[in-house]
Amino acid sequence: MAFENYTIKDIAKALNLSPSTVSRALRDSYEISIETKKMVLDYAEKINYRANPIARSLKERKSYSIGIVVSEIANNFFSQVIDGIESVAYAKNYQVVISQTHESSERERLNVEHLYSRSTDGLLMALSAETVDTTYLEDLMKKGFPIVFFDRVPAQLRSHKVIADNRQGGFEAVQYLAKKGRKKIAHLTGAKKLSITIERLEGYKTALMANGLDFSPSLVKYCQYGGLHQQEIEQAVAELSQEDYDAIFVSGDKLTTGYLQAMKEREDVNVHHVMIAGFTNSKVVSIFSPTITAIRQPAFEMGERAAELLIQQIESKHAVEEFQTVVLPTVLIEQK
C-alpha cells in the first residue's frame, strides 16, 4: 500500500485556511495563534504529514543539514558529543552528516570541502592532530559559511568555540595524585600543537608547582596521533619505563586505554605500581584494572551547546560579529 503524499495545500483546504497560514503554523511562527497552530499540528499528525525537505530547501535556500567533523566516531568522547549535537539538531529539524578525519589534515580538508560543496548550512568540528594551517577554514568563514569549533579549537580564528576546562581538569588530576603521596608524576598526551594538549599540560605544570614537585620534560611523552596508533603509545611507555615514575596523568580516552594495554604487555614493569588519573569518558571505566581516576568532560552538553550556537548563527538575519568561547567544567571521579 502506497503512502499518500499530503501537501500544505491539502491541509489548508481541509481546515479552510490559507497555505501560508498552514506553513507558518508548521514552522511555529509567532504570527500564528496558539489555537491555529494546535489545529494545524493535530491535523498534520493525524494524516502523517511530512514536509518535503527538497522543496523546503529550494524555497528557503537552505539544506537544513549540518556537518560534523571529528577524528574518530568510535571514540567515547566524540560519540557522546555527537549524541548531544543530534539531540538539538533533530529538535530543530536539521539533519546531520558525520565525517571522520582519523587525525589526517588532508582528509579533514577534503571532508570540509565536500560538506561545503554539498550545501550544508554550517559545520561543527574538532581539529585533527595534524592540522596546522587553518587558512582554508578562515576563507570559508569569510564567505559566510558558519563554523563552530569544539574540544580542539584554533586560537587564531574568530568563531564560536565550546571547550572543557582543560587546565582545571589537568590540575585536579595531578593534584589528586600528589595528595595521594605520588612524587614523580608523568604525563602522556597528544599532538603538541592541539589546544587540548597545551591547556592540559599547563594544568599539569601548575599542579606540580602547587605541590612543590619539579617539572621534568623527560616525564612528558607526546603521541602525535593521540593513541590512534598503538605503536606510539608503546614507544612512550618504553621510554617512561626508564624514569621510575610512580603516577601518570593521561590526556585522553584512546591514550588511557592504550596505556593500560601497553603496560600489561610489558614484563619489566609492575602495572599496579603506577597510579593513573586521566581524561576519559568511557562508560566502563569502573572495570578498568588497574583503576583509573577519571576526569570526565561534559561531552553531551558540549555537543548541545555547539549545535545551539551553530543553528543560531545559521538562522541569524545578520552577520554574526560577536563570538563566544564557552568553557564547561570537568568532573573528577575517583575509583575505589
TrEMBL record:
In terms of Pfam families, this protein maps to:
LacI, Peripla_BP_4
Task: Tell me which positions the record assigns to the signal sequence.
Answer: none
Instruction: Please state what the protein is called.
Output: LacI family DNA-binding transcriptional regulator
- Keywords of this protein's UniProt record, alphabetized? DNA-binding, Transcription, Transcription regulation
Which molecular-function annotation in GO is an example for this chain?
Answer: DNA binding
Q: Which SMART domains does the protein's record reference?
A: HTH_LACI (SM00354)
Matching InterPro entries: Cro/C1-type_HTH (IPR001387), HTH_LacI (IPR000843), Lambda_DNA-bd_dom_sf (IPR010982), Peripla_BP_I (IPR028082), SBP_2_dom (IPR025997)
Q: Domain HTH cro/C1-type, which positions?
A: 5-36
Q: Where is the HTH lacI-type domain?
A: 6-60
CDD domains documented for this protein:
HTH_LacI, PBP1_LacI_sugar_binding-like
Indicate whether Lipoprotein appears among the record's keywords. no
Does the keyword Transcription regulation belong to this entry? yes
